[in-house]
Amino acid sequence: MTAIGRGYWRGNEPGRRKLLARWVAVAADLLQIVVFPAYFPGILSPLNAVLDVLVGFAMVLMLGWHAAFLPTFVAELTPFVDLFPTWTVAVLYVTRKRGGGRGAL
Predict the structure, then answer these.
(1) Helix (H) or strand (E) holding 47
(2) What is the pTM of this model?
(3) Over the stretch 9-44, which tens digit does the pLDDT of each residue have?
(4) CB within 8 A of 104, min separation 6: which ones?
(5) 44-100 pLDDT, tens digit each
(6) d(CA 48, CA 79)
(7) Cα–Cα dist 76/102, whole Å
């Protein structure tokens, strides 16, 4: 497996990386769904796009590349679709426990 498949960030064991990735996803979705539209409708859309790029980059660093991140990134840049917690759903999908002996991250 290549480094991009395992994630670049080696600061903690995989369980802590998964937990941190989940918190980052929830925080990003909370900002995009509640805070940005409530206080600055339309004005902060460039900041919203920058946040999506940073969150996507952080997810790849923490969890490694996964195909679920690409449609999530596209959905986050689509107007009104970004009102759904797509980062949270994608990270939960990527970090879920799989059946069998080998498990995920």
Answers:
(1) helix 45-63
(2) 0.73
(3) 555 577 888 999 999 999 998 888 887 765 555 665
(4) 94, 95, 96, 97, 98
(5) 577 778 888 999 999 999 999 899 899 988 888 777 777 789 999 999 999 987 654
(6) 11
(7) 32
Question: How crowded is the C-beta side of 104, counted as CA atoms within 13 Å?
Answer: 16
Residue in this structure with the two tokens 């990003």, named with its chain if needed: 28
Show the tokens assigned to 11: 């600061």
Six-digit token string for 42: 């339309």
Tokens of 53: 């790029």
The token pair at 18 is 């998964």
Residues in Cβ contact with 95 at an 8 Å cutoff, skipping those fewer than 6 apart: 18, 21, 22, 63, 104, 105
